[in-house]
Amino acid sequence: MLDWEELIRECTNCIRCDLGKTRTNIVIGRGNIHAPMMLIGEGPGEQEDKEGLPFVGPAGKLLDLLLNAMMIKEKYYYICNIVKCRPPGNRIPTDEEAAQCIPFLRNQVALIRPKIIVCLGSTAVKYVVDRNARITQIRGQWIDKKGYWIMPTFHPAALLRDDSKKVLMWKDFKKVKEKLDEIVANGECV
Ligand code: URA
Questions:
Q1: What is d(CA 62, CA 15) in angstroms, rounded to the nearest whole number?
Q2: What's the pLDDT tens digit per position in 40-84?
Q3: Residue 136: CA count within 13 A, CB half-sphere
Q4: Distance from the Cα of residue 51 to its chain's centroid
Q5: Phi/psi of residue 118, each to 5°?
Q6: CA atoms of 161 and 154, how far apart (whole Å)
Q7: Model pTM?
Q8: Ligand 1 atom nearest residue 156's Cα
Q9: Domain for residue 185, yes or no?
Q10: CATH, residue 162
Q11: 79 in a domain, yes or no?
């Protein structure tokens, strides 16, 4: 396992897949590296690629609104993606790209040791929960896997396309907030 410094260096130099050739910046993550919760999305978009930070574009702005409305402060989460480089045209990352990148994500999870992992959308669900899971069927229900509480929910970009998902995602995040409050109250995190 790499420490943070080594991980950042390896990611910054990474050309394990072709996304490394087209990226402007690698997008490793943002938030608190000691947080009790990790949020995992799909991959950087245009704005994220420009800034080198995850969820800073339109989907990220919507996610920030949701987190603020839920009163979930940034000190309680760390946010990152299945792949760390922007897939051209914002296409879904391929299995090969995900396979090359996921060891870095595993390393991040091992360093942070979150209690809660929120999977944002079907790509995160596919690689974190189950290749064959359908987001519409499993969202909103806690999965207890390897000592992590995993909550599958929609990707915020899906809400930009379909208003009806907002209520459902709000419900999912209410569950997340309840669990987070319990963990914080029990002193199970720094
Ligand atoms: N969508 C994602 O999945 N991740 C980002 O960082 C931005 C948009």
A1: 31
A2: 999 999 999 999 999 999 999 999 999 999 999 999 999 999 999
A3: 3
A4: 17
A5: -100, 120
A6: 12
A7: 0.97
A8: 1
A9: no
A10: 3.40.470.10
A11: yes
- pLDDT reported for residue 153: 98
99 and 74 in contact (C-beta within 8 Å)?
no
CA distance 48 to 84: 10
Q: Which domain covers residue 82, as residue numbers? A: 4-180
Instruction: Find the 80 Cα to ligand 1 centroid distance in Å.
Output: 8
For tokens 């914080």, the residue is 184
Q: How many domains does the chain have?
A: 1
Calculate how far, in angstroms, residue 81's C-alpha sits from the geometric centre of ligand 1. 7
Residue located nearest, by CA, to atom 7 of ligand 1: 55
Q: Give the pair of three-digit tokens for residue 127.
A: 């690689």
Q: Which two tokens stand for residue 120?
A: 């944002």
Q: In sequence order, what are the beta bridge partners of 39?
A: 79, 118
**Under DSSP, is residue 145 helix (H, G, I), strand (E, B) or coil?**
strand
Of the pLDDT bands very low, low, confident and very high (cuts 50, 70, 90), residue 188 is confident
